[in-house]
Design a protein that fits this description.
330 residues; alpha/beta; Rossmann fold; Alpha-Beta Plaits; 2 domains; 11 helices; binds adenosine-5'-triphosphate; binds magnesium ion; P-loop_NTPase; nucleotide-binding; ABC-2 type transport system ATP-binding protein; ABC_transporter_ATP-binding; ATP binding
């Protein structure tokens, strides 16, 4: 599966990032094993995956920090390693691990950073701090910021020069829900102004909300990719209910067991409240399969004289897909 090409809808000039068959090694260890994807200009692409999947390694190649191994890598049509001086002014980077100088204040940190970035003149320090809600901390030493506040400072620095392309490696890790929500808004606003974003996150809801397209990586390979809808549609629908009896009672009562639905056997778990039954349906028409399943289950329930308690239909989630990808390959 590692050779999957994740094609953006556009091509050539429209592409901010092109990765084709990238392999990346640390000594004898192959951290990235032939991944391919493209990111169109103006798009937000999320790289999801397990710890150690190779997301940060891939980002560092694209950011020009690491020499690419085998394969084809382009950022704005340029080589991110050889042409890094040309590319650097156009990109903003939020690293997974912040490396702040703890004795500087927040304001001093932004000033220092502004002095180092090529095109930061347009953004004032106040604006940058306001953007991430850190105005009141301007005079506070960085070491006195909380983890989530440091992350917000990171974001302020990454966007200071209004980059065309933003690399955000786990931007909201450690943030409280309100700060995370505010950060999503900052990212969405930047995107609305035309920025391209490559994001990694372990918060699947974040990817569902923000990403135009996403890929799920595990152990150096991309295992699934596409728009959120495309990826999630592969997860199928779940039809679930509870039977008000124990497993033993269910076995006794239904001599032929629980029915198959569209050829699928249910997953049955026994809880104190009864027997939980879940069918995952991924075959056939997405629009109609849940209805057909419910119809046949109700017919079965009427036939055997049982009530399907808390009957529900749930669309598969990104989490279902993630767990399946990881489960299949582990
Ligand atoms: N400098 C390094 N030297 C040796 N191995 C490394 C180095 N950096 C990363 N690795 C290894 O490469 C693999 C990929 O690491 P990477 O940091 O790219 O993963 P990741 O997908 O970003 O994970 P996480 O979600 O935990 O941040 C891991 O197995 C890691 O141990
Ligand atoms: Mg990482």
């Amino acid at each position: 599966m590692s050779g999957l090409l994740v094609e953006a809808p556009g091509s050539g000039q429209d592409l901010a990032i092109e990765v084709g068959g990238l392999h990346q090694r640390y000594g004898n260890f192959e951290a990235v094993r032939g991944i391919s994807f493209t990111v169109q200009r103006g798009e937000l692409f999320a790289l999801l995956g397990t710890n150690g999947a190779g997301k940060t390694t891939t980002m560092e190649v694209l950011e020009g920090f690491t020499r690419p191994g085998d394969g084809h890598v382009r950022v704005f049509g340029l080589d991110p390693w050889k042409d890094r001086r040309k590319i650097r002014p156009r990109i903003g980077i939020l690293h997974q691990d912040a490396g702040f100088l703890g004795d500087l204040t927040v304001q001093e940190t932004v000033t220092l950073w502004r002095g180092m970035s090529a095109d930061a003149g347009r953004a004032t320090i106040d604006n940058a701090l306001a953007l991430v809600g850190l105005e009141s901390k301007a005079k506070v030493k960085v070491r006195q910021l909380s983890g989530g506040q440091k992350r917000r400072l990171d974001l302020a620095l990454a966007v200071l020069s209004r980059p065309d392309l933003l690399f955000l490696d786990e931007p909201t890790t450690g943030m409280d829900p309100e700060a995370r929500f505010a950060t999503w808004k900052v990212i969405q606003d930047l995107k609305a102004q035309g920025a391209t974003v490559l994001l990694t996150t372990h918060y699947l809801e974040e990817a569902e909300r923000l990403a135009d397209r996403l890929a799920i990586m595990h152990e150096g390979s991309i295992h699934t990719y596409g728009t959120v809808d495309e990826v999630v549609s592969g997860a199928g629908d779940q039809v679930a209910f509870r039977l008000p009896m124990s497993a033993a009672q269910a076995k006794e009562r239904f001599a032929e067991g629980l029915p198959f639905v569209q050829g699928i056997a249910p997953i049955v778990t026994y809880t104190a409240g009864g027997t939980q039954v879940v069918y995952t349906l991924s075959e056939g028409s997405e629009a109609a399969r849940a209805q057909a399943a419910v119809r046949s289950l109700l017919a079965w329930a009427d036939g055997v004289g049982v009530t399907l308690e808390r009957l529900e239909i749930r669309r598969g989630t990104l989490e279902d897909v993630f767990m399946r990808v990881v489960g299949e390959v582990r």
